[in-house]
Amino acid sequence: MSVTYSEMAFEKFKNAYKSDNLDNAKVFIKKGVEDAEQASAYALICDCPLAKNYALNAVTFGIKAGKSDNLDDAKKQSKKAMDMSLDVMTATPNCNQDKK
Known about the structure:
By secondary structure, this protein is an all-alpha fold. It has four helices and no strands. It is 88% helix and 0% strand.
């Protein structure tokens, strides 16, 4: 589920990054933050601290993006949140491998 929620967060942050106005971007950012929070919770349940940290970083960048007062800054922070969401997807399967 951590991977699923991080994929959803990635898509939301990507949509924010591609938005042409700040109000639309903030709608996607808010949903992306919620999905990244869920990804973090599932990573914690699965005992995958690296994925949890990446997800929390995505949340942090998403919150910064949501607080932005201009589109360029919101896009910059959304891109960072996208990258962190992608890192969750990469880290999670490796955690499961380490425990086998």
